[in-house]
Amino acid sequence: MISEKNKEIIENYIEAYNSFDLEGMVKLLHKDILFRNFSNGTMDTETRGIQEFGELAEKSSKIFSSRHQTITQYHAEGDTTEILIDYEAILAVDLPNGLKLGDKIQLKGKSVFGIHEGQISLIEDYS
């Protein structure tokens, strides 16, 4: 069962993410945050530490004119919490994969959060 404190930390992070509040996201992170993104079963991005994460978050925020993650389910497993999400975003730029400015992206995914000393120490996103 997920603790109320961990649930609050995760929800605050998602709220900051949805509103492009990079400072709000970073303040919830452990200094040694490990972030990984997996797409179609392959890890395509990894950052270690707040500086690398902040740089990626800044770059990523410029790709979308809007973005919204909705948590649909929580599952605690040991020292991690998995959330299932519905994700929707509108592109602010053309992408090399053929998606264009204004295109809408919708997908379902999951994120795994590790929380250490009251801060997020691990985020793994799967889509």
TrEMBL record:
One Pfam family recorded for the sequence: SnoaL_2
Source organism (scientific name): Paenibacillus marchantiophytorum
Span of domain SnoaL-like: 10-121
Protein name, as recorded: SnoaL-like domain-containing protein
Domain of life assignment: Bacteria
